[in-house]
Amino acid sequence: MENYRREREPCSSELRTELARITDDIDDPVAKLRYLRGAIQRGDATQIDRLPFGAVRRALYRFHGLESLDSVIELEGEATPVGAKTLAARTRARRFVTGTLAAGLLFLPALLAGLAARIDAPAPPLDVAAASPAPRPNVPQQPVEPLPESLPADQPGIAPSTIWLADRGPGWELYSNGLRIETTYAVYGERREYRIHHRDGAIEPGGYSKPIGILFHTSESDLWPLEADFAQQLRRGTAGLLRYLQHEQSYNYLIDRFGRVYRIVDDESRANHAGHSVWARNDDVYLDLNSAFLAVSFESRWDGGRSLPITRAQLIAGRNLTHYLRQRFAIAPEMCVTHGLASISPRQGLIGYHRDWARGFPFESFGLPDLYTVPPPSVTLFGFGHDDEFLRAVGERWPGLIAAEQMLAEEARQRGLPVEVVRRERQALYREAGKSRAF
Amino acid sequence: MSNEGKTMDDRNDPGSETATAAESSNIGASTTRTRIGLDVGTSKVVIARGDSTRSESGTQLNAFFVVPYSSLHEATLQNNRVPFFREGDELVVYGSASEKFAHMFNAEVRRPMAQGVLNPGEPAATHVLETLLGTLVPVARSPGELLAFSVPAASAETGHALTYHEETLKRYVRERGYTPLAVNEGLAVVLAELAKESFTGIGISCGGGMCNVAVSYLSIPSLTFSLAQGGDFIDSAVGAVVREPATRVKAIKEETLDLAQPGSDKIGKALHIYYDTLIESLVEELIRAVTRSQRLPRSEQPLPIVLAGGTAKPNGFRERFEKALRQRTLPFKVADVRLASDPLTATARGALVAALAER
Predict the structure, then answer these.
(1) Does domain A166-434 have CATH number 3.40.80.10?
(2) Of A37, A398, B172, B219, which alpha carbon lies 20 to 30 A from A331's?
(3) Does residue A120 register a pLDDT over 80?
(4) Statement: residue A182 has pLDDT above 70
(5) Nearest to A20 among B184, B198, B221 (CB)
(6) Does pTM surpass 0.80?
(7) What is the ipTM of this complex?
């Protein structure tokens, strides 16, 4: 009963367009309102907005909208308030769906047979170039070194000594270092609130709400080739991704492939980005990275060990955004880390549960220390390990991981214990600390 | 004035339990199932009743005055069929007649509501408002019938008073046998006037105590806010500068004001100035709210704006509002600015549409 007074987010533009088309054929205001309320409520409950293709989403919304006409057509004893054109469209849509289902059932055995024939063939690698119309050269693929993209170091030139909000307008903010943040998708989330643990197991008294670090992610979304022929798909893909991220409050920022920076979750709010993750600086240990770290995601997909499908525009925008966030929240350089370096699986006792930027993040281009050379605290403090599957995915251990595992081995040698015992001791410390990480 | 020991039976109210005595009322008995939309405004209470094909409306001035009891006063009121009730040693005259008869009894008109909600500084507010509503809202024919009533958007000025106001109205509506449905005032304007646009656009209700705004997409209120200024602000501001009672300014405003023509006298000129002040504040607040909102979609779709309420009624108001809008850089596109087909009843009609649409 609060539907007519509480503010709500409007439904997606695609659903709005389809519903507006259908309601054009309903003259009676009451029937129109009743229809819209029902259709929007039903539309909100579906997962259509998560589908990647706009044409499919629109078709489903239209079908969904036409089906919702039942609520106004089938009123007992009342004349149908819907025009003949829309009723005919509803009938056609129903026939189409019925026909498609029937055809699907008819061809299902053939499809299953075809799949069975191909089941033993190796699956083709996921590759952004696969969507490109250009033929791929038939050459054997060489293993690609997981080297980061490079950018020239920041030129001092006329860069401002501090970064400030230079201008703003509806839906955007411009900062003095050239960073432009699109704010049209920005939402407020849950307030940040986290605790700081010490390496000795003690907990800092009181809670904290200011972000202390930055966690870099990749969106792991579908990518279209960066070519003019795919401009529309690129735009739509990003728009769909943004809607999804906004709904899930996944990151604080997304940088799309053209280098546009979108604020998703407000800086003061926590995003749902880190899962179980660990990072540390000096004596301080952070276990709730959702609250303690800002999330910056690049619209990209990182296939372990392969070249990065990240654009130069994204790198430049990412660098500007990092400078701005570091200045605003006084973030130390060694607190700008990748998700792949911090993520863990407490249940399995393994690192790398999420692997975005587990290798290849261009720390140097961002003016940051190379954290691939730093022993990850998940290993040194809490004894998390890795398995063969992890190694296959990332290609090889990085210097920091090697150093961390050597430290554990050295401690085990000094204490005369198997290294696995030392790991279990450390993981027990994590579980103990985890009990008190929440308020 | 105390309400102790008093019941509705104490009223000498020719209009109670029916709406037939309400000013401008043309509500008649209906043979079809009808529902009710109610606009509980600071200045006026408007009721719309009907079904999806036709609606009828009635109005009461949301005001009252008090005179000491005497048999002469009582006889005068009864002879003139003016609704009143006796409260101890006083007679409380309420509704549309109060403004007219206050002069006769040399009394000051008082308001049960201020700035869109029950007047916290008026002890008789609830009792008078409920009595006044009784002249418009009949007892429900069947229990649980839906009655939609307008509520302002929350603002810093209304605060907790809005909750009290809304709950008081809900309780009263339930006591009359209805199921209450609260509808944002700005959204009600959209529901009444923007059906052809699939209820997408901006509805603005300019009332006596405040202006209420709703940005709606397909009937979903995605942004609502209120400005704690309205017709009363204009009346009191003009009254203060021209040294005239606000009630006189109000009477002149309602009877003669034409904003399309330059003000011809001191009061007219001051009315133009304060109308412009109100319009400027409203446009500025609209731009600020839309810019700040995190909910509104970035859309190229031009939005129609509908103006309603008694304060928007004077000739030339729409043009001045549109001019103020066009002078600024807007964070949205405007399709057109229009005045509601009947500005005084738009909110009640919109509430009625909501009541009828609910199962």
Answers:
(1) yes
(2) A398
(3) no
(4) yes
(5) B198
(6) no
(7) 0.84
